[in-house]
Amino acid sequence: MDKFLYNRLTDTALPHIAIFLNDVLRKRVRRENEFGISATFLPGHFKAYTVKLNPLDGVYYCDIRPNMVDDTFLSQHIKTIDHFFYTDLWELLNNHGQSLGEIAIEREQNGVEENDT
Questions:
Q1: Is 22 in contact with 68 (CB distance < 8 Å)?
Q2: What would the pLDDT profile of 18-59 be if each residue is shown by its tens digit?
Q3: What confidence score (pLDDT) does residue 104 get?
């Protein structure tokens, strides 16, 4: 949603990526002062929000989960962090976006925008 809102509000097409450090959440177990871990990644939510509604320009995990590799759909949209540093980062840097001349900037006069007068 951040990509959609930013690009809509600024009238630009700035690339958006997501980098995730890990996919674990501490959970309580039956014994006191002991904790386990559980995965937080929800494939259905990822498919709906990140791919179908508003695709990001890259999704990267530092500790990619087995289902992100085994699932054909997920493996097409989620990459490892090394893929970002070795490949995608350079492609993003070489992709020149809009020039300042293409962006409409409205000037204010005395606290009132010119379009309001």
A1: no
A2: 888 876 666 667 777 666 777 777 788 888 877 777 788 889
A3: 65
CA angle, 32 then 34 then 39, to 5°:
130
Residues 6+ positions from 54 with CB-CB distance below 8 Å = 1, 3, 4
Alpha-carbon gap, residue 71 to 6, rounded angstroms: 30
Predicted model pTM: 0.67
CB neighbour list of residue 14: distance below 8 Å, 6 or more residues apart: 6, 7, 97
Structure tokens at 99: 């020039």
Residue 30 is encoded by which pair of tokens?
């039956």
**Alpha helices, DSSP H, located in the chain:** 2-10, 43-45, 66-70, 72-77, 81-83, 89-94
